[in-house]
Protein 1
Amino acid sequence: MHAIHDARRTAASLPWDALADEIEALLRAGAARVPPRIVMPTGDGSVLFVMPATDGTVAMTKLISFTAANAGAGRPTIQGEVSVFDVASGERRLILDGPTVTARRTAAVSALAARHLAACPQGPALIVGAGVQGRAHLQACAATLGVRRFVIASRSAASAQALVQHAHSLGLQAESVADAHAALARCPLVVTCTPANAVVLRGPVRADAFVAAVGAFTPQMRELDAGLCRHFAEHGRIVVDTRDAEHEAGDLLQAGIAVAPLPSLQDVLRGPQPPRGGPVLFKSCGWAGWDLAAARLALRQGA
């Protein structure tokens, strides 16, 4: 027997603080085995992703489609599921909603990185992009970092206002701005989570800024201006989510920045902490290990 969780139940099984803690525990243990994900273009900018991972006890595979054209058609851009197995018996234990897992684990990773890297993790926070990831990051920053004030920027004024209203429903302060750059001077915490088909942030950023760049996950995609990326490299620090970013971090690759020497989030958690100073860029591309952490937590929550 296995349980099937819809989007609502999947979200309920992945509370923000517990999910960030689970991801940190997985990285510190270093026992996850995560082969390179299969990325198969299916035409017209659409992609099918197959992402397996195991820790020797739990195994899971996320199978999702990414259809960029759906953004303007009223359909979700990410669809699919996460199948979770018990390694010892081979039994399928759980099926989770793929888009919900993707949204929550991505935002939880950003919040985890901010815990350890941000000079001012309590914000105020600027969120550039008011879609699914914008909403997830707003919730994660509020629940995990204690952020109470948000500034929302989006190409769609209606989407920005909808996210502002969602923030108000959670008892948070929020406002929308037409120009993201206008808020950089007052927001030390920044998240970019757009479709990454155009540069949305050029800077300048504050000396104590922490920017989580989430939207770009292929060499062709980018959200950050090349000059801004180089500013982080020269005057602050760049951390990538995993070593896979070496061939996926379009923001950095298009800026001519060598990704291989950069520390990963696991390096940050398992190594000595360098003194803080200058702005920090956290470049996130995604990794099946985050989905594995979500699967482990969801199994325990349902036990």
Protein 2
Amino acid sequence: MPANSQRSQRPAKLLAGLLATGGILHFIAPKPYDSMIPKQLPGGARAWTYGSGVAEIAVATAVAVPRTRRLGGLAAALLFAAVFPGNVKMAVDAQRRGTPLPLRLVAFLRLPLQIPLVTWALKVRDRA
């Protein structure tokens, strides 16, 4: 594969790796993800944690495979948007509980991070 082609696939491969890692972490350490699940959702938090982990791994696979990358990039953007309420819940909970400042900052800094993640996913889609 030419060096230019490898470089052009790097953003997609990195995005797939990020998504796969996040998805796997839902199974290795589910408790932090459980606490992000809004109580208004039906069913148990653990089921949503595992389901979202499966979704992240599936989207990672779609992004990793060149043939499905365009759809995978769109799915990644939608996934990042879909988890935003969970990130808001995490930040609000951290504020309410008086979580130590460094952890509270991390919770709040995750919110604007969604914008570059969505943008990244859409660029991967557009370049597929």
Protein 3
Amino acid sequence: MLVEIDDADGVRTLTLNRPEALNAFNEALYDATTVALRAADDDPAVAVVVLTGSGRAFSAGNDLLEMQARITDPNFESGEYGFPGMIETLTALRKPLILAVNGLGVGIGATILGYADLVFMSTTARLKCPFTSLGVAPEAASSYLLPQLVGRQNAAWMLLSSEWIDAQEAQRMGFAWKVCEPDDLLPEAMRHAKVLASRPVSSLMAVKQTMVEPTRAEIAAAAAREYAQFAELLGGVANADALAAFADRREASG
């Protein structure tokens, strides 16, 4: 199962379960995550959603081999929802979303933090937005959400540099609300989730609606700008070179 689902006391925990690929998102995982998020949002017994990863990664971002296939394979088939469907689902989510970032978060594994209501990070977790190192544009409306979340300069460094930031730096910047020892991460996230889940679901959704609704049109507009830039750069010289280098490294190590 690509997304494991557990329910307890009004909290639904979704665990990305592709550990052999560091929970990198391929089309199947985008679809499975989208379906799981929508089901949680529609289930009246669920008050709060927690998203985490299995193994040593939260998510290594887009599956780069699949990204290369998208460019080179004329028969490449997109998923039912894919990346756009998951982003639309995160934007529309009515219930509180808590992220428990258990390990490395790359690309969408980092930009997804912009959709969270609370972020808990393991002391061993790290974040990176590798867009410039891949010769592409930002994604997931991060060009809008990250400046909103952490300020213009922190977001600029994150999106322009393709450098890692550790959990302590992520908390200082404002990406993470709390940093926990690895064994304490999920218990702490769950403890806070259960506090929220003890409140009326209708009230939780009303609070989130009033906070998030003013940003939804801006998120959609930012995503549209990013898709246009991404489409222009995908398969260009810088991107093709970066993907070929990744494939070569993977082949050499495998």
